[in-house]
Amino acid sequence: MKYLVASVVIFAVGLTGVFTPARGIAQLAASPIQLGLSDSAANINGFFEFFANIGRVKGENQKLLTEVEKLNSELVAIKDAQRENAFLKEQLGLKQESIVDKELVLAGVLGNPTDQTGASVILNKGAKYGVKVGDNVIKGAHLVGIVREVTLGRSVVDLITSPNVSVTVYDIDVAGKTSGLAVGQFGTAIQMTRILPKEDISVGDTIVSLGADGLFEPGLIVGKVVEVAKDSSQPLKTAFLDTVIDLSKLDKVFVIVER
Length: 259
Hints:
Elements: H1 2-15, H2 20-93, E1 102-111, E2 120-123, E3 136-139, E4 142-150, E5 155-159, E6 166-171, E7 179-184, E8 190-195, E9 206-209, E10 221-229, E11 237-242, E12 252-258
């Protein structure tokens, strides 16, 4: 009962305004604390919002990187297709009369890490595309080599600089068409042998395939003469050839296949 009476008295006194100054002092004292708590709450909220923004920015950056990678891949594919089309157009424009009844299979050069001499390469086309052993490999009007091995999706080509390759050839720059046999020299050069002493041949002459060996199409460029050697103790002359194209930098070639 006494607590009820005390509560009524305090309430009645409060209505008179006696506690107003004390309440003001208490509120004034509590204001810095309230302000500090408010600032702390804002800082904590900003802290979590900062990390949320980092996650969002990171996600957006990853999305942009993925789009850039996709665009770069598409750009590479477009450029490769353009180069391939130009390469094909050039090859068709240089197609020799001797192979008009045959087809050309475009192939990529993969190199051959098992051959340290650099005298052979692997192509990314094989029997599935009609390629078979003995098919000639060309680039433009130039003879590159001959197919030695074939699997379903790959083929191994001996280059014209390989000692396994010998081509009957002739000098297109002389009236008498000086002929001989071109043999590879372990991936470095080509030696033209069996040249009769009286036959003309000079440095700078272009040597092309003759076709008399039954292995190579006629009229394909084998190389240019860089040296002519005549040993008095030997009945025949020898010429050394350099390929006109750089066989070490081939990326695409054509394989001549039967229709």
